[in-house]
Structure formats: structure tokens, C-alpha cells
Design goal:
By secondary structure, this protein is an all-alpha fold. Helix content is 78%, strand content 0%.
Length: 395
């Protein structure tokens, strides 16, 4: 049987499931497992909350570096993804080692880079395979894997914490869990070892489209606003209730909403303009970011997880689709600029909270002030996006 025949005989559903699992490991464990693990590491005295912000920021720096270097590596998409997932497993297990915080930060930086490489590689091989199998519309469903991975990692940590497992043990268990999820992906990648077809030849975008700077700033604000609750929601929940069976629900709820929102985003974007959807999502996300800083209670944590988790994938899709629609040629570099702005914003979030927490007079309110700043920025960006939409509709 020829390689081409083998690829044609692939099941589109199997390809989609492999893509979902790949993103679940790369993002839910490689990138975001630190969030549900953080309350346990704090409780065991391995970190304090100020240092945790720097460790979290290292992961986001790594993601930026990974996104910037993925296209420069000479590996195929399948090989890049396979290697990145393997490194993700190893780095997850290494988090169980009793090392200084700066070593954890270095490992989280490498894990962030691996997450970006796996994300880029998966987007190429999975979307390409689905297109060859005449199921291109299934591609948007693949991104639900991000939320599913977040929810799965969160639930695993919730169950483990409720059973009294220590943080090092849970890191090792997450590595084993990630390995099991990767097995079907690695098998699929072996069947997709032939080079992907060349991308359609498009002229490179020679000039930045109108409004690019404003869109990039809004996308960076999105990164700054969402990453604070995405990092600290379980910690805030733990300050309200000690029972891990309750405070640990914040992150699985966040991930579940992200997965659902990725599936419904396409419907919303067909019924309103991309900028309108983006603006309204910003307002809802801003409310979710603001709530825990004003009322620290179980209901506010739950509502924050629903609002932020239910909008961040919608904003992602709306922002990327908007800049792609405005591009007059190959949109790759423009999308990269948007992604870079997002990465800078999500790096700034934990750094800002850590700086505030290190100020003696603001130590008690540092995280609240950072959340309020993130919410205000999201509201201002929503106003600009709504104005921009009205301005474009008049021309």
C-alpha cells in the first residue's frame, strides 16, 4: 500500500481526535497544568505567590519564543509536534524534582516553547489532513482540545488533591497521563510522515492593513486581562474554602467553558461582525476578571471561571479571523504580530501582579489591583473595538 493510499484511507474522525489530544497535552498540561498545581505547591511551602508569578511568566515567555521560532526550525510539522509532545512529558515529570524556584521557572520556560511548537505543528498537520480528507470544516472543532486539556488536567489535580496526593506525586502522575494521551497522537503522526502539500501561493502582505496597531493593542490587552484569572483562579478559590474538592473546581469549569465556547464561536461569528463579538466578549471577560477583586466568595470565583473561560477562545478566533480578513496577501506575518502582542500581554500580567505583591504597602491588595487593571483595560479595548466596527460600517 502506498503512502498516499494509506493517508486517504485515514478516518477523518481519527485525525480530529489525534489533533484534540495533541492540543490537550500541549496546552492543558504543558502550558496550563501549573495553574491547578499552584495551590498545592503553595500549601506545601514550595513557592510563595509572588515567586509563583515569575514562574508562570517564564512559561509565557517560553510560549512567545516557541511561537517565534517554530517556523524557523527545519523539521516537518509532524516531527516538530512529536518531539514537542515528548519534551512536554519529560518536563512535566521534571517538575516533581525538589529544585530551587529558578529551575522550575527554567523548566516552565522550556515547556512553554514546547507548547507553542506543538500548537503550530498540530495546526499544520491536522488541518492539512482534514482538508485532504474533505473535512476542512472540522478544523475549528480541533481547538476545543485546548479547553478539554485544561478541564482534564484540572479534574485530575482536583481528584488527586482530594485523595491527599502531594504536589511532586501529582506532577509525575500528570506526566504519565500525558504519555497515555500522546500514544494515539504519535501513532497518527507515523501515518502522516509524508511532507504536507505546499501552502497556496499568496503574495506577501506588503502593507499593514488599516487598524492593525489598534487590533494588536486590543489583542495584547486580551492576553493581559485573561491570564491573571487563568493563573490565579484556583489560588483565589482556595482562599475562600480549604476543601480541595470545592476550590479545585474553578479550573475544570474554566476549561470546560473554553471547550464549549470553541464549538459555539463559529455560530456567533456568523450572526454578528467579528469586532462586535470581540467587543462583547471583552466586556463579559472584564466582568469575570473584576469580580474576584471586589467580592471574594465562592459564587464570584465560579462566575469568573464561567465568564473568562467562556470568552477567551471566542476572542482568540475573532481576533485571528479579523486580521486574516484584512490582509491583502499572505496573512502569516500579520497573524504572528497579533500573536506576539498577545504573548507580551500575558507575560505582563503575572509580572505586574508579582511586582505589586513585592511592594510592602500593596502586598495585601496587589493581586486585586492587577485584576482591576486587567478589567479596566478590557473595557477600554471593548469600547475601541465597538467604535472601530461602527466606523468601518459607515465606509
Amino acid at each position: 500500500m502506498t503512502s498516499a493510499t494509506s493517508r486517504v484511507s485515514l478516518s477523518p474522525a481519527a485525525v480530529l481526535v489525534a489533533g484534540l489530544l495533541s492540543l490537550s497535552v500541549a496546552m492543558g498540561i504543558g502550558r496550563f497544568a501549573f495553574t491547578p498545581m499552584l495551590p498545592l505547591m503553595l500549601a506545601e511551602g514550595q513557592l510563595d505567590i509572588a515567586t509563583a508569578g515569575w514562574v508562570a511568566a517564564a512559561n509565557y515567555v517560553g510560549y512567545l519564543l516557541g511561537a517565534m521560532t517554530a517556523s524557523r526550525l527545519k523539521w516537518s510539522a509532524t516531527r516538530l509536534c512529536a518531539a514537542a509532545l515528548l519534551m512536554t512529558v519529560v518536563l512535566t515529570a521534571a517538575m516533581a524534582l525538589p529544585v530551587p524556584a529558578w529551575v522550575w521557572a527554567a523548566m516552565r520556560l522550556l515547556a512553554g516553547a514546547c507548547s507553542a511548537w506543538a500548537f503550530v505543528g498540530t495546526s499544520v498537520w491536522c488541518l492539512g489532513a482534514l482538508a485532504r480528507l474533505q473535512r476542512p470544516a472540522w478544523g475549528s472543532s480541533m481547538y476545543a482540545g485546548v479547553g478539554l486539556g485544561i478541564a482534564a488536567a484540572g479534574m485530575y489535580c482536583l481528584v488527586g488533591a482530594s485523595l491527599g496526593a502531594a504536589a511532586p506525586s501529582l506532577w509525575m502522575q500528570l506526566a504519565v497521563f500525558a504519555t497515555l494521551l500522546c500514544l494515539p497522537v504519535w501513532l497518527m503522526l507515523r501515518r502522516l510522515d509524508a511532507p504536507l502539500p505546499a501552502a497556496a501561493s499568496l503574495p506577501e502582505a506588503t502593507a499593514a492593513p488599516a487598524g492593525l496597531r489598534g487590533l494588536a493593542i486590543c489583542y495584547g490587552v486580551f492576553g493581559f486581562g485573561y491570564i491573571l484569572p487563568a493563573t490565579f483562579l484556583p489560588v483565589l478559590a482556595r482562599s475562600v474554602v480549604e476543601d480541595p474538592r470545592l476550590f479545585g473546581l474553578a479550573w475544570p469549569v474554566f476549561g470546560t467553558m473554553a471547550a464549549v465556547s470553541a464549538l459555539v464561536a463559529g455560530v456567533l461569528l456568523r450572526r454578528a461582525t467579528r469586532l462586535q463579538v470581540w467587543a462583547v466578549s471583552n466586556v463579559l471577560m472584564g466582568v469575570g476578571v473584576l469580580l474576584p477583586s471586589l467580592w471574594l466568595a465562592g459564587w464570584s470565583i465560579a462566575l469568573s471561571a464561567l465568564l473568562v473561560g467562556g470568552t477567551f477562545m471566542i476572542v482568540t478566533l475573532a481576533g485571528v479571523q479579523e486580521i486574516r480578513a484584512r490582509a491583502t496577501g499572505d496573512p502569516t506575518r500579520l497573524v504572528a504580530r497579533m500573536t506576539s502582542a498577545f504573548a507580551v500581554g500575558q507575560i505582563a500580567g503575572p509580572v505586574a501582579s508579582s511586582l505589586l505583591l513585592h511592594v510592602p504597602t500593596l502586598r495585601e491588595q496587589g493581586l486585586d489591583l492587577a485584576l482591576q487593571a486587567g478589567a479596566l483595560a478590557l473595557f477600554l479595548a471593548a469600547a475601541w473595538l465597538w467604535w472601530e466596527d461602527k466606523a468601518r460600517s459607515r465606509h
